Amino acid sequence: MEQPLLALLPAALGRIALALHENRPPRLVWQEIEHAVTEVFGQSLFTVLAYDDASSRLCRLHSNRLDINPVGGIKRVTQSRWADHVLTRGEVFIGSNRDDIRAVFSEFEVLWSIGCESVLNIPVRRAGRTIGTLNLLGPAGRYDAADTTLALVFGQLAAGPLAAASQSLGDLDEPARMEQV
User: Fold this and answer.
1) What residues are paired with 93 via a beta bridge?
2) What SS3 class is residue 57?
3) How many whole angstroms from its chain centre is CA 120?
4) Model confidence over 156-176: pLDDT tens digits?
5) What b/e readout covers 14-35, taking b as 16+ CB neighbours within 10 angstroms?
6) Each residue of 52-104: pLDDT tens digit?
7) CATH of the domain at 153
């Protein structure tokens, strides 16, 4: 890690820890996490998704681009290499280019239109199960050298606020339209 990044981490992690300690509403915690991951990794699009294994659903809780990815959007999880990697095994996924984006996201053309050609998906886990993901998308190759251990630290900081949201997904009615991942 470069020295400037090391200098940023204490402040970034401290802001998230303070938001959690003060029991701020989840949307404020998401904003702090977004700010911190922007400083560390950079991205054009940042989303937070809650995951419910029983209903095979992901629900968008936060987005920095509401015009592209509105809060409340629901995705049906299908069997895929990505789902196994991120949701089942709880491992960070890095996609480097347009082919990787197309293989994972049904809305790949929309993502390409805003310059998102790479992805860093960070699983958020609690008690050995994935309960959500933090998703960073940016230009091609952006995350090829990303520190995945540090990415998982950000994921763990999101576990508390994500836990309640992931439990309530199974109770939602079936939406009229659902994306797939």
Assistant:
1) 121
2) strand
3) 8
4) 989 988 887 766 665 555 554
5) ebbeebbeeeeebeebbbbbbe
6) 888 888 999 999 999 999 998 888 888 889 999 999 999 999 999 999 999 99
7) 3.30.450.40
The parent domain of residue 169 ranges over 3-180
pTM summary value? 0.85
Q: Which two tokens stand for residue 15?
A: 């802001």
Place of tokens 């990794």: 41
The full DSSP string for 48-74 is EEEEETTTTEEEEEEES-TTTS-TT-E
**Contacting residues for 10 by C-beta, under 8 A, at least 6 apart:** none
Number of domains, the chain: 1
Residue whose entry in the numeric block shows the structure tokens 């940023």: 8
> By C-alpha distance, which of 158, 177, 174 is closest to 61?
158
Quick one: which H or E segment has residue 20?
A: helix 3-21
